# Entry
Amino acid sequence: MKRPLPVEHPAYFEQYISLVKGENIIRVLEEQTIGVQAMLSEVPEEKENYSYAPGKWTLKEVIGHIIDTERIFGYRALRFARGDKNTLPGFDQNEYVKNADFNKRSLYELGHEFGSVRGANLALFKSFDETALDRKGIADGKEMSVRAYIYTIAGHAAHHINVIRTKYIAD
# Structure
């Protein structure tokens, strides 16, 4: 799968897409799944509900946010790949986190859920041909291709993984 061109997504999403290294996005997503689960398995229990500053999400909330965003972007990719021309709404990430109660769940459970959501999306993405990947749709008032959503999913997770490593679990 070729990388998305700048005309396939709003400029804002380049911050995520640019974080995707390598030429095989499916392999990147698969390796990222293993990496995230391995990283989470090493987090000490006392860090699971840690927030590095007042008003910032806890580690569990960051993982929950990655999962929610992957679900939403995967759903958008599905709709657009299938030729759905309906405009999709945006979402307020802060409201999602606030209403999810991620801190009541175990980090293990969240890691497992991440793997399940990612696995389902990978099965879907592997089924897309170039025609499906080229299709575009509008969500939150912005046009984006299916391919750009797939790369954004990987880049969004990479962004938050970097934040977790530097601000949550760094020694």
